[in-house]
Design goal:
The complex is a heterotrimer. In chain A, 63% of the residues lie in helices and 5% in strands. By secondary structure, chain A is mainly α. In chain A, strand 1 and strand 2 form a beta hairpin. By secondary structure, chain B is mainly alpha-helical. In chain B, helix 2 packs antiparallel against helix 3. Classes of the chains: A mainly alpha, B mainly alpha, C mainly alpha. Chains in contact: A-B, A-C, B-C. The interface between A and C is large, with 57 and 58 residues.
């Protein structure tokens, strides 16, 4: 197997290497890739869409259809992880562990038994890994709101600086995941349940697809944001800019929710009871 | 010698991509551990992302965000001043796809692990032979 | 309204999938009705689209309102409009018959199942319509990703075979992406028609040849052409029945369409067939696929695995048909995409119904199944006869075109492989019918073992699958025969315009 693998890899590499001599040089501004379609984007984006960040304009407008399905890909990944891993809650874990807050003593309660969830005296802890660190927990709690604020900035400012729905959504999701890692999964689930994340995930993609449908209903083609002009009361070019913002918000919501949803299922192997 | 130097300068990005591609492919073909295969798969996808991004570069150009955006309409935009934005857009899509694939791959690997108790392919094959002697 | 048909076909399943994911948390009963409405809308729109194409010719839909090289366009011609109808019809028929099996297999995850099902269908329909090389990759990934998940939730070895499929599929998609990258590097465009216009100015070029080979090999992995078929048999065998009867008829055929689209629209048919010396090697690969697929199908002891290897052989039929390079062969291949989708659906659905009742797909456990499940087995007979190629079922007609194409091209190896595969299919299915029909019950033995517990396996009692499984199954079997009867019409009205005029 190893020899076969080496041989395949060697042949593949030799062909690719041989062909690479026919490529245009690196950074050559006269290469076909820089000459044919891309100058149009660079020179006309401002006139067409009124968005200075060309990448955002292409992503959400010129090739907005790709991005719709890219969001759908992320959404299906979240759905797929849920579909594959989620174990219904009926199967109780073999034992639950509780810590008495005042004394720090840990209790082990055998299968089936449980203490009330919301007491001030006891706290449920995980069986495999016991995160008992006040400093980390508190620091992360303090940092999380700022990360989330920054994420909102990244989403909203995608027109003028590097950023946009995907980047902002990932940062927002990462903040929630940081909270889950530094505290625990159950506490995170209480703040943002699995149902919420699934609903938000589909809402996000629905905002994107719905904008496309709305444009269609208003008489232009699918995802042709200039049709929103009459609705928003602006000229068609600004309408494209606003349309891009709307779909970026949708993307942000979808990516946040799906990242968290994937994390919930992967970290707890689908039980969503114990986990990091 | 000088010609060789300029050749290397013009093509070394592609060679780096090829090296990464081969590392990923080799890991996927020869490694027995499923997680190592997943890592190999990710390296393979990353190499392609690097390939596209390096297509987009232009010497002496800046990031594709128009500096004199609003309010200065008379300022002409020249395409040589900005790098090619299209590959970046495409790779944003490809990155998202590779993240999604990674998530599903890990979920499947977890299912395999919970079923067989191992991630080594040959051990899994032995267990399959034991349980299904058809 | 009419001009929006292309987008309705794909956006309706997408939005329905999102609605199901959301509404399912409140009421589990809404999933199937929403899915069926979405599938039906999609089907109606695709029939409308086909009629439109027949009356006005090639259609173009600009997404976002941008002109082709800058934005993404959908290009609908005779070729893809016909396959779109087939795909949405197959998906809908399978969906209608899914309720009982899905509720049994997935219980709490019904919503996620239907959402993934619709996303899978939407991805495939998008692949069929798109006129943009990169957009095809994105849609390819959405169809594959949902496919991995659906397959991975089967029993026994399903997660492992799903993971193997994921590895192979990702390599395939990545190779395709690399090929598109090479094309972009040399032409600067992603639009298929635009690339095709630029290519003659830069040919001959080694990079373009490699790009062609990379795109093709990526798609070969995805369509499971021998010897890259390793992922397919296990993935189709161990996946849940509803999933295998969705994925088996559709995935390979859509990938074959994508191959033809790449040959036809991006690289031009002349370059694909003549400029690169690939025609004969690929034809021999197709022959190897037919022969090896048939031989390996003979060796199987499980029903679904046997059918999966037949799929491997059928891939060889269609790939060979396209690479014969003459009108008869290509018409046969396009017709076979439609027919194979119908007959694969028929046999996999029948197998699903049988497995649902017997809970065991070993051939030896199917004894007397004709008597207990007469309707399912009749459908299996129709599908089997079509796979063998007996008139008036549709399999005969496409095989006829393929054989006459092979004769016209003077490639007798391909003709021989087709005849060999028909012979093997005859053996396979008549063995199955023999087990199901003629083989007597192990009566005394069975009574001794379980006679006192319950009498459900009694020889005279009919234990047919539920009605909602049987209705679409019978519809599919009828479809297999109707397609056969109207084969000539389909070729004369639609397919002959789908083949480029340069092909004599």
């Amino acid at each position: 197997m190893r020899a076969l693998g080496l041989a395949t890899v060697f042949c593949f590499g030799a062909i690719l290497f041989y062909i690479s001599f026919d490529f245009p040089g690196w950074g050559d501004e006269n290469s076909p890739a820089s000459q044919h379609v891309s100058p149009y984007y660079i020179e006309h984006t401002m006139d067409d869409t009124s968005v200075p960040n060309i990448v955002t304009a292409i992503l959400a407008d010129y090739r907005g259809y790709d991005t719709l399905f890219e969001t759908a890909v992320i959404f299906s990944a979240g759905l797929a992880c849920f579909f594959l891993l989620r174990i219904p809650e009926r199967q109780a874990p073999p034992a639950r562990f509780y810590r008495h807050l005042a004394t720090g003593i840990t209790f082990r309660i055998e299968k089936g038994g449980r203490l009330p969830e919301d007491t001030d005296e006891f706290e449920r802890i995980d069986s495999v890994w016991v995160p008992y660190d006040v400093i980390i927990g508190m620091t992360c709690r303090l940092v999380v709101p700022f990360i989330q604020l920054f994420a909102l900035y990244v989403i909203a400012h995608g027109h003028h600086s590097p950023g946009g729905g995907f980047q902002g959504g990932v940062i927002f999701g990462a903040a929630i995941i940081l909270f889950a890692i530094s505290n625990n999964l159950r506490r995170t689930l209480k703040r943002m349940s699995e149902k919420t994340s699934a609903l938000l995930g589909s809402l996000g993609v629905l905002i994107y697809a719905g904008t496309g449908i709305l444009c269609m209903v208003l008489g232009a083609g699918f995802l042709n944001y200039s049709a929103l002009a009459s609705l928003l009361g602006v000229d068609p070019v600004s309408a494209r800019s606003h349309g891009i913002l709307i779909v970026e918000i949708g993307v942000g919501i979808a990516v946040t929710a799906v990242m968290v949803w994937i994390y919930y299922n992967l970290s707890s192997a689908g039980r969503q009871d114990e986990g990091l | 010698m000088e010609a060789l130097g300029s050749l290397i300068l013009a093509k070394y990005n592609y060679w780096a991509v090829i090296a990464l591609l081969l590392i990923g492919l080799y890991a996927m073909i020869t490694k027995k551990n499923l997680v190592k295969k997943i890592i190999g798969m990710n390296i393979f996808q990353t190499a392609i992302i690097l390939f596209y991004v390096s297509i987009g570069s232009k010497k002496g150009a800046t990031i594709p965000i128009i500096t004199h955006g609003h309010g200065d309409a008379s300022h002409a935009v020249h395409s040589v001043e900005y790098i090619n934005p299209l590959p970046h857009v495409l790779m944003l899509t490809a990155i998202v796809v590779s993240v999604a694939t990674l998530g599903v791959a890990l979920a499947l690997a977890m299912k395999v692990y919970s079923q067989y108790g191992t991630l080594e392919e040959d051990e899994i094959r032995e267990k399959i032979m034991e349980s299904e002697p058809v | 309204m009419e001009e929006q048909f292309p987008i309705i076909i794909i956006a309706v399943p997408l939005i329905a999938a999102l609605l199901i994911t959301a509404l399912w948390w409140f009421d589990k009963r809404v999933c199937l009705p929403i899915s069926i409405v979405a599938g039906l809308t999609s089907l109606v729109a695709s029939v409308g689209l086909l009629l439109q194409v027949l009356s006005v010719g090639i259609l173009e839909y600009r997404l976002g309102g941008w002109a082709p090289p800058f934005g993404i366009v959908y290009r609908i011609d005779h070729l893809n409009s016909l396959i779109i109808v087939a795909v949405s019809l197959v998906s809908l028929l399978n969906l209608i018959g899914s309720r009982t099996i899905v509720e049994k297999e997935f219980q709490e995850k019904v919503g996620a199942f239907y959402a993934l099902y619709l996303l899978f269908t939407a991805g495939l329909l998008g692949i069929l319509m798109t006129g943009d090389a990169f957009n095809l990759y994105v849609l390819l990934e959405i169809a594959s990703l949902t496919g991995y998940a659906l397959i991975g939730l089967g029993r026994r070895r399903a997660p492992l075979s799903g993971l193997n499929y994921l590895f192979m599929g990702t390599i395939g998609a990545s190779l395709y992406l690399l090929g598109v990258g090479y094309l972009y590097l040399m032409t600067g465009s992603l639009n298929m028609a635009d690339i095709a216009q630029i290519l003659p100015t830069i040919l001959p070029s080694k990079v373009i040849v490699l790009a062609f080979i990379l795109c093709l090999s990526g798609l070969f992995i995805k369509m499971a052409l021998f010897p890259l078929h390793g992922w397919l048999p296990n993935a189709y065998t161990y996946s849940p029945s509803v999933v295998s009867s969705l994925v088996a008829p559709l995935t390979t055929k859509v990938m074959i369409y994508a191959m033809f689209r790449v040959m036809l629209t991006i690289f031009s048919i002349d370059f694909s067939l003549n400029s690169v010396a690939l025609r004969l090697p690929i034809l021999w690969l197709a022959i190897a696929a037919i022969v090896m697929g048939s031989i390996m199908a003979l060796a199987q002891k499980r029903l679904k695995k046997m059918l999966a290897f037949i799929v491997v052989a059928e891939v060889g039929y269609m790939v060979g048909g396209f690479w014969l390079g003459n009108r008869a062969g290509m018409s046969g291949a396009v017709l076979h995409i439609i027919n194979d989708a119908a007959m694969t659906l028929c046999v996999f659905m029948a197998a699903g119904a049988i497995v649902y009742k017997t809970e065991d797909d070993r051939l030896s456990s199917l004894k007397g199944v004709f008597r207990t499940m007469p309707v399912s087995m009749t459908a299996m007979v129709v599908g089997g006869l079509s796979l063998i190629g007996v008139p008036p079922t549709c399999g005969f007609f496409s095989k006829w075109y393929l054989i006459s194409g092979g004769m016209a091209a003077g490639h007798y190896g391909f003709v021989a492989a087709l005849l060999f595969s028909s012979l093997v299919n005859t053996v396979l299915f008549f063995r199955l019918f023999e087990i199901g029909y003629f083989e007597p019950f192990p009566s005394g033995h069975a009574h001794e073992q379980q006679g006192h517990t319950d009498a459900r396996n009694h020889s005279s009692s009919i234990a047919e699958a539920p009605l909602d499984v049987l209705v679409p199954l019978v519809a599919t079997a009828v479809l297999v025969i109707v397609l056969g009867i109207y084969s000539g019409e389909i070729v004369a009205r639609v397919i002959q315009f789908a083949i480029p005029a340069v092909i004599g």
